Amino acid sequence: MNTPNQAEWRLAKVIMGKSPDWRAINGHERQELRRIARLIADNRTPIDRDRLADALYDSLNSVYDCTRVWEAWSYGTMTANDFHPTQERAGEIADEIIGALTA
């Protein structure tokens, strides 16, 4: 398993809304982050924020943010209320992506 590079960590943080641990950017999730990064890199023309937010909204339809730390699983205190649709943050994520690309 390769060590994630800095760009993968930063992109994961933007998409997840928090600093990820190593589990979050390996395997399938890491491939998805790379796919999104390639899409962004291939489209260096001015970015349509609303179009990007809509694309993120559509692609995040089954993704949830967990508001608890990973260790909460071991205490049995995790509930459905600890998860929120990432889709709701599509605009915020789009703004962060655009900001990172234009900085």
Compact description:
The chain is mostly helical.
Count of the separate structural domains: 1
Question: Overall mean pLDDT score?
Answer: 76
Order of helices and strands: HHHEHEH
Sheet having the most strands:
2 strands, antiparallel
Characterize the quaternary organization of these chains: single chain
* Shape, principal axes of CA atoms: globular
C-alpha Rg, in Å? 14 Å
Q: Strand sequence of the main sheet, in spatial order? A: 1-2
Q: Please tally the helical runs, counting DSSP H or I stretches of 4 or more residues.
A: 5
According to DSSP, the number of beta strands is 2
Question: Helix share of residues?
Answer: 40-55%
Poorly predicted segments: none
Structure class:
mainly alpha
**Percentage of β-strand residues:** 5-15%
Distance between the terminal alpha carbons, to the nearest Å?
31 Å
Topology diagram in text:
Elements: H1 6-16, H2 28-42, H3 49-59, E1 64-66, H4 72-75, E2 83-85, H5 90-102
Antiparallel strand pairs: 1-2
Molecular structure report:
It is a single chain. The chain is mainly alpha-helical. The chain has one domain (6-102). The chain contains 5 helices and 2 strands; from the N terminus they run αααβαβα. Strands 1-2 form a two-stranded antiparallel sheet. The radius of gyration is 14 Å and the shape is globular. The N and C termini lie far apart (31 Å). The relative contact order is 0.16.
